[in-house]
Amino acid sequence: MMAAMEHRDAEVSDIVIVLKAECAEKMDETVAALKGLGMEVEETDAANGVVEGTVDAGKLAEIRKWPCVEYVRVEFTYIADYPAGDKRDQDNPEEDAPDDAED
């Protein structure tokens, strides 16, 4: 039987994105694009051009290069092990099944 957190489905980062002032009117477009990358947007602050959420850590470099992004602050990065049945679970279901057979 596998130990907890032995599998690594994804490396995930909780981030805060600050948009450039000239892109404030593009908040809706930016949020839609971030969601398209797989970001789970938790909160937006259009008045300050801020988007907060969680994204696959492998997407950080791409987000930092966007023309409207002034700054990306990574608050926390962790390994996610999603439960069986979750669409993000990358473990082999057969490996996760307990071995009930006794020989």
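(ticket continues) Second input and output from the same batch:
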Amino acid sequence: MAFLLHHLPAGARNNQGIMIQTDPVAYDAEFIPLTMPAAGANEVRATLLYAFAGDGPGIQELRIDAEAVSVPNRTPSEKASPTGSVVVTGFGATSLAQGASQPTSVTLTGERAAQMRSIFDRLGLGASPDACMEYEPLYRIQFVGPASRPASMSAAGDFCGGDDVGVSTGPGTGTTLSDPHCLLLAEVVRVLPARSASATRDALHECRVTYVG
């Protein structure tokens, strides 16, 4: 096991250490879960799992499982309006008990709004949000469309690692995007006033450490 930990595949990250399961197997089972770099254009998640289990005195079995999750292309309705203003909100504090608080908002127009829309529209669809526990939002983005498109679109970054972006176009509608390189979160931090929204800024650092390296 020590050999595997010191000879991981290229790009692999061991974010959870070694996991141990003692029941219901007769002998302790140990697992090394690895996060692998996504390779395909529509591949959002890749994992590799080494599993070790005893199979009698002095005997140990090794099992290797690999999984990749791919998603389809986004449809035009899942992208922001090409024109209009963009309202960006960051937060000074977030917690499950108190929610997101100490908001700071800015309204973007012109080239700054176009930049935010461009980064948002380039994100791919994410994996099912059911795989993540509930988190308070790290930021909110409101894409305000023109009068011909009255339904605005909103996006909220959660910390299923900071890489998942929940998108809503109205009550009961929504999808999940993937921001594995923290690009949208970084742009949010860039446009917010200096020394504001400390929780959002801290999330960017954590996202980069966890996913970008």
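Agent notes: The mean pLDDT is 77. The CA atoms of residues 75 and 125 lie 10 Å apart. Closing as not reproducible unless the customer responds.
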